[in-house]
UniProtKB/TrEMBL annotation:
This is Energy-coupled thiamine transporter ThiT. It comes from the Bacteria. It comes from Clostridium kluyveri (strain ATCC 8527 / DSM 555 / NBRC 12016 / NCIMB 10680 / K1). Gene3D superfamilies: 1.10.1760.20. The lineage of its organism: Bacteria, Bacillati, Bacillota, Clostridia, Eubacteriales. Pfam families: Thia_YuaJ. GO terms for molecular function: thiamine transmembrane transporter activity. The chain crosses the membrane at residues 12-30, 42-62, 68-85, 115-131, 143-163, 169-196.
Amino acid sequence: MSLIKNFTEILSHPTSIFALIAVIIFILFWAKVKNVKFTTQLVTQIGIALALATILKIFRIYHLPQGGSVTLGSMVPILLMALLYGPEVGFITGFLYGIITLILDPYILHPIQVIFDYPLPFMALGIAGYFRNRKIVGTFLAILGRFICHFISGVIFFGSFAPKGMSPAIYSLTLNGIFIAVEGAICIAIMIVLPVKHLETIINKKMISN
């Protein structure tokens, strides 16, 4: 009975709920990526993708006061890794990029907020890897996954920044929606012109030759 009472008490606090969700996601993440074979080529490609994403983020177009940036397509290298190597590699690359972003551009209010604003949203970009034959659909859903993470963080942890009379949900939707929409549009435009299939063919040939 006390166990049920304790569980009910935990669920009555939004922060506790999302902490539990984060733990479940990280457990699933570990289960998905633990069997990835880290060849020299793969490690090199991840390193290059992280370097490109970081450079693109540094030369950002706009930086929001409470964190978040509109960049010149900094999500594209992570999306490419997911499309070329599969979702697991996309999750790993996104996670590492989230940590790099936290180091370079931190905005910290709460440990759970950090998780939902840094590693989780960029891990979500790995979703594109489930749609390797439909790169635009995959890109859109991956960016939507990132938006959901930022939206949750905005509602729970940034609601106090909302103007008087505006609900935290509307504030988060507006703030995160605008910058993710612009950032996402830039990335989708880039992905449209990128020859992903051609790049995949080149990578497969190299893997066979090795």
